[in-house]
Description:
binds zinc ion, globular, 9-stranded mixed beta sheet
Amino acid sequence: xxxxxxxxxxxxxxxxxxxxxxxxxxxxxxxxxxxxxxxxxxxxxxxxxxxxxxxxxxxxxxxxxxxxxxxxxxxxxxxxxxxxxxxxxxxxxxxxxxxxxxxxxxxxxxxxxxxxxxxxxxxxxxxxxxxxxxxxxxxxxxxxxxxxxxxxxxxxxxxxxxxxxxxxxxxxxxxxxxxxxxxxxxxxxxxxxxxxxxxxxxxxxxxxxxxxxxxxxxxxxxxxxxxxxxxxxxxxxxxxxxxxxxxxxxxxxxxxxxxxxxxxxxxxxxxxxxxxxxxxxxxxxxxxxxxxxxxxxxxxxxxxxxxxxxxxxxxxxxxxxxxxxxxxxxxxxxxxxxxxxxxxxxxxxxxxxxxxxxxxxxxxxxxxxxxxxxxx
Length: 376
Ligand code: AOF
Ligand code: ZN
């Protein structure tokens, strides 16, 4: 049988369903699965919170005997390995599914092609690659971590009508309105970690949590690039470190500081006491050159972080852009005028780096969101 518009419609629904648990199944991807019999959905599921059970076994359980002869739509190739439960491919075979339609094949070396192989060997018809671009987008974090050993990185920033992202010495300056803020809260909720530079951490004293009603438990891990451990113990980040984790990325050794800023050996003792104080407050201090995202990102991936949101400020944005380590840019443009003392944006709509494609524009109240993406 060839792919029909019905297949695409059901796959689109499976992809929408998969987004429901985005960012909440780490390190497993959030996969959507529909079981369809005679054009009617008889089972549906998304990978459970924290990653197990997988989508297929839950959808099959809902369909029960109706799964026999039905078609399963899955956003990712069904697994073939034994985890905490037997492989999903085995379950699809056992329930007597006649056809499996897949969006994206799984790069996990334990699965990669074997899931499809098991199904075909059992006589099940398999079609892969349906709505693949959309499927890959919904699995971007998982695919990036699996194939590039780093998180999928989104750079988000808001620019005023006069091209500014804030005002010198003014702390947090409202640029976008409440509708855009709600959207950013939703973005944070589906992201594993959020990162800012020490400049922003001090100037804005941000909380970087998710406060939207119903999503409060989905705050990402908060990461501060802080070479010399200058994050104040009285900052909101440190004060809430026991509720939502904070990781401070400091320079690897005092000798590096010396080379960079002429610090004296006395600073090593000072660093040590700051580190002890931060750790006593519940902050995790990681030593890794904060100016080398190409080293930091694989370290974060190893800890299970698949998606990262870079939220500020200009210096940190430039650092990641120059390293070529941004996968997606979300640029909010607001009608607000900052004027005198403004901090210039590192980027505007006219100088988005080459390699990024403009993938959409949305309006949130008065604010315009433009999204740009690079291929995975
Ligand atoms: C599926 N359906 O819903 C998901 C899959 O740690 P484990 O044993 O759960 O295995 C994780 C791997 O399972 C992950 O790398 C990916 O290959 C697959 N995820 N597979 O059939 C699902 N979430
Ligand atoms: Zn599975």
